[in-house]
Amino acid sequence: MTHGDEIKIFYQRHLPHYQPLGNTFFVTFRLAGSLPLYVIQKLKSEYEAQLKLISGIQNEKVKRERYQDYQTSYFEKFDSVLGNYKNSVSWLRQTAVAEKVKEAIHYYDGKSYDLITYALMPNHVHMVFAPINAGRFSEPPKSGRNGVSTYIVAKILQDLKKYTAVECNKILNRSGAFWQHESYDHVVRDEDELSRIIEYVLNNPVKAKLVDKWEDWKWSYCKFLVD
Known about the structure:
30% of the residues are buried. Strands 4-1-3-2-5 form a five-stranded antiparallel β-sheet, with helices on both faces. It is α+β, with helices and mostly antiparallel strands and 227 residues long. The two termini are 17 Å apart. The chain has two domains: 12-34 and 88-227, Alpha-Beta Plaits (2-Layer Sandwich), CATH 3.30.70.1290; 35-87. Helix 1 packs antiparallel against helix 2 (60-84) and helix 3 (95-108) runs antiparallel to helix 4. The protein is built from five helices and five strands, in the order E-H-H-H-E-E-H-E-H-E.
């Protein structure tokens, strides 16, 4: 598998997360304090300025395409800043902490979700999974608020983050927030996009110069590469 140059990821921040039942999700969550407030504010300011420009486009199709393209660009920029910020907290560099998070991710596999892939980075986590009893790539239900559930993925991440926060804080002999409250999610549209996202996740440690080959990173997994 090679690193894909064109990774199309629809990214949302400070917006309602689109979480229809019956889908596969790409999620990213980071450690509390992994980026300073001034960096977040700068990124947010740029984000809001671009959205304002896009909102002025009259053609709805062009507006939607520009918006989706910008979400992709914004996610990649944010992830790059997160991965390269030198003064970031990096508790996941500690083997015992990373092992606890890895253990928890696998514990929920088959219980809350069908785990597809993940990569633990020093200050954030990328995961791809399909919630249990929500068939992958199927159409969302027609009932409810536009067939959208804001609960299913949020609840999965809440359980995972709550447990690991408590256990990792014990290891670190600290208290307080462990994970940043906000998480980021994207609905995987089809098998082609799933392949591109898997490449993105597995190559994240390579991009961050943590290893030369994705196969050498201890803190990643892909079910399609396991017998």
